[in-house]
């Protein structure tokens, strides 16, 4: 298959590449695009973790800064996102390094603040995440208003 098929019908291209691998026709493989797709899988997993963390952090911010609006739906979202993050980290343990990456946290926290601001109309959120990852992912912990 040609690069043209990769660019016009990635599913057909992927099926053809899988067939070539299974039949041992390695010389016909589109190695450049296979490498790209493998890298994209890793990027997709990273985006999934970041997306779930943004939702979780935004809801924790809303919980902390709008205590009068706390409700069951926020609790359910927080619980579900915690579990989804924990499961994702269990399934893809190499992503745990992201939790120690300051640049990654800056982006995720910024996105969470943006989302929480958009949903609440508030703009008094901390510039950096004040919570530990252990607290964020703990089923027993919920943030309270700062003193």
Give structural notes.
The protein is mostly helical. It has a single domain, classed as Malate Synthase G, Chain: A, Domain 4. 67% of the residues lie in helices and 0% in strands. The longest helix has 35 residues, at 31-65. The protein is elongated, with a radius of gyration of 21 Å.
Overview features:
147 residues; mainly alpha; Malate Synthase G, Chain: A, Domain 4; 6 helices; 67% helix; elongated
Compact description:
The chain contains 6 helices and no strands.
| Cα-to-Cα separation, first versus last residue | 64 Å
Mean pLDDT: 94
The number of helical elements comes to 6
CATH class: Mainly Alpha
- What is the general shape? elongated
Number of strands: 0
How large, in whole angstroms, is the Cα Rg? Answer: 21 Å
Task: Provide the CATH topology.
Answer: Malate Synthase G, Chain: A, Domain 4
Whole-number count of domains: 1
The secondary-structure class comes to: mainly alpha
**What profile does the largest beta sheet have?**
none
Low-confidence segments: none
Helix and strand element order? HHHHHH
């Amino acid at each position: 298959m040609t690069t043209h098929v990769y660019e016009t019908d990635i599913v057909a291209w992927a099926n053809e590449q899988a067939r070539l691998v299974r039949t041992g026709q390695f010389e016909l493989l589109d190695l450049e695009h296979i490498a790209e797709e493998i890298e994209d899988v890793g990027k997709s997993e990273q985006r999934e973790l970041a997306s779930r963390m943004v939702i979780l952090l935004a809801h924790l911010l809303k919980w902390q800064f709008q205590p009068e609006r706390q409700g069951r739906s926020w609790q359910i979202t927080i619980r579900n996102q915690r579990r989804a993050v924990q499961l994702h980290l269990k399934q893809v343990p190499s992503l745990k390094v992201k939790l120690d990456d300051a640049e990654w946290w800056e982006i995720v926290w910024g996105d969470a603040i943006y989302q929480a601001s958009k949903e609440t109309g508030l703009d008094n959120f901390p510039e950096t995440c004040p919570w530990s990852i252990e607290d964020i992912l703990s089923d027993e912990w919920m943030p309270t208003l700062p003193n």
